[in-house]
Amino acid sequence: MPAQTATERLQRLLDTPAQPAQGFLDLLGEADQAGPPTGLTQRLMRTTLLPQVNERYWRPALGRALKGPFGPSMAGEVRLAAKLLALTPGDVVLDVACGTGRFTRAFGAAVAPDGLAIGLDGARTMLAKAVAEGAPDTVAYLRADAVHLPLKESTVDGICCFAALHMFAEPETALDSFARVLKPGGRIVLLTSARRGRQPVRLAESIGGALSGQRMFDRGEIAAGLRARGFTGISERYAGVTQIVAGRRS
């Protein structure tokens, strides 16, 4: 019997069958996105221009502006995420809001030859670009709701969600969903917003987030949310108005 492709393996992990579409599986059909829009930044993700410049220009430049001069580069983020997830060959890892797939491709290489890296995003244009970039044969892409993950319970060894949780309409529900699909002992790593505590900086950051449609989480808020869901071994790293939080599901 021939070995299953990455897409076939992904299909078996879903709690409902998905339709093939342009090199990825699709659970959203004709819908523009999953859930209500949250603002300008999220709408940009669905354009045809942004995916073409996302990895090389947009994401690195935006990240540097938000992280400040001492935060990790985008390449550094990829390395840090893989390290915090402690990926090994054979693992199943989920890259939530994967965009054009830079992290997903790196994860696919880390879990080869028998693992699976799933890149999940709601934007057709992002996934089309991700597919066009090519990937290891351990990678499969899925267009689906990032808040209500369509995966069966306890199916993945690791979850990465970088630069996205603050754009979700229901971030608390997303954290519940992440905990549900992780196996016991599975790891999570998140990069999201981190509002500083002192006025008037705090007020300015809150206004900026509201104007762009991004929620500004407090420092420590995400770590507390993970602890409330039974995660242990939690680490936090702060740079500018961002935080990288990692933990392990008990």
UniProtKB/TrEMBL annotation:
Keywords: Methyltransferase, Transferase, Ubiquinone. It comes from the Bacteria. The keyword Flavoprotein does not apply. Transmembrane segments: none annotated. GO terms for molecular function: S-adenosylmethionine-dependent methyltransferase activity. InterPro entries: Methyltransf_11, SAM-dependent_MTases_sf. CDD domains: AdoMet_MTases. Residues 94-190 form the Methyltransferase type domain. GO terms for biological process: methylation. Gene3D superfamilies: Vaccinia Virus protein VP39. This is Ubiquinone/menaquinone biosynthesis C-methylase UbiE. It comes from Amycolatopsis australiensis.
